[in-house]
Amino acid sequence: MQKQVLPPIDSASYLTVKGDELFLDTNYDLLIVDTQKNFKERLTAYFNENIEVYIFNEGKWRATCLKDLPNLTLEAVFVPKQGFLNKKKFGFLDVVNILKHLRSDKGCAWDRAQTLLSIRANTIEEAYELVDAVESGDSKKITEEIGDLLLQSVFYILMAEEENLLNAQNVFDVLSTKLITRHTHIFGSDKATDGMQALSVWEANKAKEKSFLTHTQNLKDVPCGMPSLMRSIKVQKRAAKAGFDWTERSQVVEKCIEEVSETLQAYKTQDKTATQNEIGDLIFSIVNLCRFLNISPEIALNSTTNRFIRRFEYIEKELNKQGIKFEEASFSQTDKLWNQAKEALSE
């Protein structure tokens, strides 16, 4: 436009955007210039059609309802900043504002009652649900679960702000700095030609930042709250980088066999503590074997659990066909059907 157009109302902070720009930032008052004929359709995709907007035509501003916006080219349209209830498209700040409202006196009793400690289990649950959605390949589920996990992060930020522990700016500062300082093969002088080398650079920079003086400190840094299989393989990998590792795959296999024998010996003594310790050693050695075979123990065990459920379902359906309740079937009946299920499902 040749002549500058100013907003029709006092605006401390507004964005001037072209009418053909693909996205609109709804966190500001918007002064939209050089609009196109289909612009009403674009605005109603962002905002409730009942909001008040201003249109500039023939040198004058006038107020109108979005639903009454004419379908013609206008010199400018001004959209005052809207609250989240008047929006159809949202950003990070909208999530923050919605959660702040839910945490307020006018909000939700459950959201208001939560603390940094109380939502820990929810966070773990949401992380697993996202992983499950990713494995399912369902884009709708993935979208929803990413949002749920993001909500957990926003929850933590707001509650930590309320306790004056930190603020959102601190979180983004630390995260951005970490991404830069850990990727010295991209933003510095280190070299990495593949993923493994890049990971080694990351881990080396992490240890430097944390000022670890011993390898043991690095092992202890693995969170105790991690699922045990994940924690054990992470500890093993860090120990291996320190040089404490088997040299041959056959040694790991022999160790697994040895631990099976020791577990059976402990079981025969009927000493529960000793048996528990030996079972732990056996599982740890199997996790170690997974590491040597480049197999995720989490994925392997989940896969087996899923196969178990499918075979269990097969048995139950076959028993139902025979008019037999599962809990009334004999072991020989279910064992026979289990073997049938293995062949029928070809797993």
CATH homologous superfamily label of the domain at 92-166: MazG-like
Sequence of strands across the biggest β-sheet: 1-2-5-3-4
Characterize the overall form.
elongated
Which segments are poorly predicted (pLDDT under 50) over 5 or more consecutive residues? Answer: none
Q: Which CATH class of the domain at 92-166 is shown?
A: Mainly Alpha
Beta percentage is: 5-15%
Number of strands: 5
Describe this structure in words.
The chain is elongated and about 95 Å long. It contains 14 helices and 5 strands. Helices cover 58% and strands 7% of the residues. With 347 residues, the protein is an alpha+beta fold. Helix 13 (297-321) crosses helix 14 (331-344). Among the domains are: 14-86, Tetrapyrrole methylase, C-terminal domain (Methyltransferase, Cobalt-precorrin-4 Transmethylase, Domain 2, 2-Layer Sandwich); 92-166, Helix Hairpins; 249-295; 299-344. The model has no long low-confidence stretch (mean pLDDT 92). 11% of the residues are buried. The protein has a 5-stranded mixed β-sheet, with no helix packed on it. Strand 3 (52-57) and strand 4 (60-65) form a beta hairpin.
Would you spell out the secondary-structure blueprint of this structure?
Layout: E1 14-18, E2 29-33, H1 39-46, E3 52-57, E4 60-65, E5 76-79, H2 92-103, H3 109-113, H4 120-136, H5 139-162, H6 168-182, H7 184-187, H8 195-210, H9 215-220, H10 228-241, H11 249-269, H12 272-292, H13 297-321, H14 331-344
Parallel strand pairs: 1-2
Antiparallel strand pairs: 2-5, 3-4, 3-5
Helix pairs in contact: 2-5, 4-5, 10-12, 11-12, 13-14
